[in-house]
Amino acid sequence: MPGYDPNLIFDATGGYLRQFERLVAIMAALRDPTTGCPWDIEQDFDTIAPYTIEEAHEVADAIARKAWNELPGELGDLALQVVYHAQMANEGGKFDIADVLGAINAKMVARHPHVFGDESRDKTPEQQTADWEAIKAAERKAAGKSERVGVLDGIALGLPALSRGIKLQNRAARVGFDWPSTDEVLDKIVEEARELEEARDSLGPDELAEEYGDLLFVMVNLGRHLGLDPEASLRAANMKFTRRFNYIESELQARGKAPKDSDLTEMDALWDQAKAAGVK
User: Fold this and answer.
1) More confident of the two residues 154 and 245
2) 154: left (phi over 0), alpha (psi -120 to 50) or beta
């Protein structure tokens, strides 16, 4: 007998708890070694992890585009990833979906003593953030993850580089390792740009990559000082570039051309035309 209710898979009635149970049952059926999907059966944590990251980015993309009609589907895809990992863990006797949900529920209650405990709610967002980090550090120490709980401990290596950069800088800033204003950051950008120029002319690819990374890291710091999210800002710039290049392609098509039939002068003029037309 399977470890799920087959009837539940095709029963779309009921509220969100019933629908969640249905998703868990569907995932178990897909992984059933006898009757499941061959592709799903052969997957493991390593092969599914990239899809998990991809689905999270698709959620962010739908939000950035304000595609609210698409967001439920994207969130569903992301929820499937959680259930997928939990199902594989359950098969290996590691943990199950109840452990996953229990862990996050316990964490949210423990990290919000001002909501679920007796601490005062009269705190600024900055103080709440500082308290959150202090609780996390205490949790890491209690779990014995490190004899020395470092300021930068626990920031996931798998984060997008821009997102991880701002988290590293925020952590360092909380203990005073930060420039006092954007003026110093801008000066550092100029310095790093000059070093990159020198590396381009005199150093090898490894040194060039290092200098380029230094410049990107300082650009992240500038965004942080300006109160901007570098990841979101770059995502918006990517979308703007896409819309304007689509405009160029449309205008070229009206002239009976494709981009490969054009040249930089013509396409650059169309880019300026797109800007003047308010394409953002």
Assistant:
1) 245
2) left
